[in-house]
Amino acid sequence: MPQRTADVIERRFGLKNGDRETLEHIGQTYNITRERVRQIENEGFNHIIPKIENYKAVFEEFDSAIGSFGGLKREEELLQFLGEGKLNSCVYFLLTISGKFKRIQEDEDFHSFWVKNEELAQSAKNIVESAIKALRKLDKPVELDSLYEMENSGEKNTFVSSVGISKKIKTNPEGKYGLSNWVEITPKGIKDKAYLVFKKEEKPLHFTEVAVRIEKLPFNENRKVHTATVHNELIKDPRFVLVGRGLYALAEWGYQPGVVKEIIFKVLADSKKPLTKEEITKKVLSQRFVKENTILLNLQDKERFVKDDKGRYNVREA
Length: 318
What we know:
Blueprint: H1 3-13, H2 23-30, H3 34-48, H4 56-68, E1 72-74, H5 75-82, H6 87-98, E2 102-104, E3 113-115, H7 118-138, H8 144-151, H9 156-164, E4 169-171, E5 177-179, H10 189-201, E6 205-206, H11 207-215, H12 227-236, E7 240-242, E8 247-250, H13 260-271, H14 277-285, H15 292-299, E9 305-307, E10 313-315
Antiparallel strand pairs: 1-3, 2-3, 4-5, 6-8, 7-8, 9-10
Helix pairs in contact: 1-3, 2-3, 7-8, 7-9, 10-11, 11-12, 14-15
C-alpha cells in the first residue's frame, strides 16, 4: 500500500511503538483533516482485509479466548490476556480487521469491551443493570459468587465478564463487589476510612484507636495516619458523634449529637412525662460514656430542669 497509508495504519494502531495516535494528531502531521485521515485508514483496510484469510488460525484463537470469557471481555483485560506490552496494539489491530468481533466504545456507564455480537452486548448490559438493582437492594458489598447466585444470570463466565465492563460496579481490596460510589468500595479520604473502621468494629472507639485501625485497612496502602487529622475529621463529619472523652460512635447507631445537658433535655422531651434520676441516668448512659455524677450535676440546672414533689425531673417550661 502507499507509504502514507501504511504510516497512518501503523500510527493509528500503534504498531511500531505501542502508542495509538488520534485522527487529529496524525492529521496535523500531514496538514490534513481528521476525516481525510479516516478515509486513508479505510483505504488501508481495503488493502488488508482481502488477505486476512492468511490469519485464520489467529482469529480462531481469539474466538476461543473470548468464548472462554463468556463471549465478551473488557478491552483492557482482553488485550492484556492476548498480548502483553507492545503486542497489545497488534492484538487490537487484528481484532479490528477480523470482522468477527464487535468493539463497544466506552461511555459513561461502561468500559470499552469486545463481544461476539450486538445481541450479546445488550444482554451483558441487561445483566449489569440487574446486578446494580440487586446490590442497591442488599446495600452492602458481597462476594462474586453471592451476587451471581442472587441474579442466577445464565452462564457464570458471561456474568463475570458483564460485571467487569461496568463502571458502576467495582471490587474493593477484600475482593467484594459493590457500587463504585459506596464508601465500602472506594472510600474518599480519612473520614470515609474512619467510617469503615466503625462499621467493622461495631462499637464506639477513641480517635487514637481509629487512627491505628485505619492504617491497617487494605485501602490505606501502608500510609501513615496522624491522630490529629483523624480527630479533626471526626469532629467535622455529622456521621460521627462524640460520646465521651475522645470516644466517637456512628450517628446511624442512634447516638445523638450534643453535650450531656442537651442529651438529658432530649431524653425528657421525648419521654413526655417526668422521669426519675435513675431512669434519666440509664437513658443518658446509653448515649454517652460519662460518669453518673456528671449526669446528676447537669440535672441541677434549675433553669432547664424542674424536680416535682416525687423526686422526678422534667423540662422546665419557658
